[in-house]
Fold this protein.
Amino acid sequence: MLFVHELLRRCARNRPEKIAYYCRNESRSWRQVDQRSERFASALQNLGVRKGAVVGILSRETFEIYEHFFACSKLGAIRVGINWRYAAPQILHILEDSKTRVLLVQAGCAEAIHTHAEALSRLGVIVIGFGPDHHFELDYETLLEQFGREPLDSPQLSPVDSSLYTFTSGSTGKPKGVVLSYGAVAAQVYHSVIGRGMLPGDIVYVPVQSSWVAFLLNAMGTVNGMSHVIVDGQFEIVQFLRDIERLKVTAAQLAPTLILRAIRHMQSAKFDLSSLRLLMYGSAPATPALIKAAKETFQCQLHQSYGSTETGWVAYLYPQDHDLAIRSEPGLLRSAGHVIPQCMASVRDENGRELPPGHVGEIWLTGETLMTGYLNQPELTAEVMRDGWVRTNDIGRIDDRGYLYLLDRRSFMIVTGGVNVFPANVEAVLSGHDAIEEVAVVGVPHEEWGEAIAAAVKVRAGVPMPPDADLRRYCEQFLSKPECPKTFRFIETMPRNENGKIDKSELKRLLVQENIQ
């Protein structure tokens, strides 16, 4: 298996003029991306960066994200992406925890770095700025011109060498680093192309936050030479739809909440999305009603992916599965699909024993795309990784046909009156109510039951709020008595974390603060 920088070089050789990336009204060919990343790698080498050194980037979405990534790969360096939405203490924690040697900073993100210049100096971080008026001593474009033509001292790389430190939200409030090897990164890119059915002629728009591992989806083109569209700085739904129309995008991916926004805009404005053959979704559960609405609105194939930072993408619900579900098996729309042949899933009990098909337990995963471990956290690594398997903390089951069903996160499970309740099951029922646009269910302290089930509900625009009693009667048609929410709270805006998912910890805090019982 070739590493991504080797694939890049072959794209540049075999399809030099093919567009690799579109952003704004500009584009870069595979040859240009290869040449500019080569020059940056040479500049980094001149600054003393060698195999195993950590090179970070703090930037909104732009071409340089991927030039930086490929340059790191060519040097055998370790790439760290830093979320530009993070506060300064979180940024400094990542730099210190990862032992970042060089940091590339976009001008629009420079303020936090200038403010904490003394701390960066103490950490020994070399800062390079790019974009107008960044006010750093070292400038990206200048370095490309000064050192960009010196030959690289390319290292010998092993599949187990570290390629990425990708930071996720931690339980202590500090982001924790997930270590991914060069082999795991290459496998993720290859498997993503195969699992999503990408074609050489595709123009793919995956508007991800590049500080997360999902940015690897915008390296899929190195496998087959297709083109990618990059968000201009920050995602905006109307611009996303305009870009699909303008660039004739053939495949796109959105989180379910963004699909809902896109459907609304499609209903109120005219966008020609006839080029779109595939709409992919993932990262959070989608309701059957939303999936059907997406099919009707976009008139294209649908595709769902399941995975995590620690495991990569391991399961897919393919277009033919969606068609079968809509035609005759609606229950399939609650499935995460089939695990790909390159990986395996196992449903286990609390003692780690494998359970037969149909039984509910924790999902364990194994395969080529697994993380090496958590950065500087051996105890947490040992807790999560067991004999080549990763414990996902997801509760689910696998049926006789091999379809994987996710019920909820183990950490979200509510114990009420001694009964285990999975919030996702309650949310799936409530989301079917005509008045409800979005719902989140959490457990709050209760004197009698230990925990009471509380549902935070956002109603559809222009729809009156239904009485609690009506919602309770609706739930009783589909749920057991312990699963039915004790209370309902109507909310205008759900609290969300940096990756756009509902922040259930914050939601629970808000409900407890209001003495919801």
Observations:
- The CA atoms of residues 292 and 326 lie 7 Å apart.
